[in-house]
Design a protein that fits this description.
232 residues, Rossmann fold, 6 helices
Amino acid sequence: MTASRQKITVADGTFDAYVARPAQAQAPAVVVIQEIFGVNHVMRDVADGLAAQGFLAIVPDLFWRIEPGIELTDHSEAEWKRAFELFNAFDVDKGVADIAATVTQIRQDPGCSGKVGCVGYCLGGLLAYLTATRTDVDASVGYYGVGLDKHLDAAENLKRPLLLHIAELDGFCPPAARDAIVAGLSGQPHVELMIYPGRDHAFARVGGEHYDAADAARANAATLALFRRALA
């Protein structure tokens, strides 16, 4: 696995992306969509893990319009405060457009087989869902997405596989919102929902307060299985 930085240009500027390349010369790609903490070591570790599994992984810096290069952790009150400031200032529609540009660019990379998936966490879980409804990405996965219940009308645009990992006790997704997501997406032909009883938000974030190794492993195995199937 090798890591590098790449520039992505859109109509109103240029932003960085972290790229992790697998050992093989050509592979399907996965866009890793950040949490509210920026492109930090957790997101880079996700990309590196995907590269180790044979995927070309790219993590775009979606906070670049607010402040480029943000790297926060979940270990201090000050960092949490800054993370929520960034979340509140973030333009979701522009974020999805940046992801679409990332999908287009990595699809054209000589190291890409032509197939591209995306996986997102927290804020990125919402963005992965919206990416599935607005772009030509080949498969999407969202972990404990925040605010999906406000965008359920977009589900009619889903044409390719979408897997959502939903924490039953997600503190950022109240029961009414969770139930609306399940009701609104159950039965959709391209959607798979996995519910994790007793789990809170970010149960798959290694080192996080609510991390659960067993359910994180279960979720990650399902994610890899989908990507191997849909991006082959």
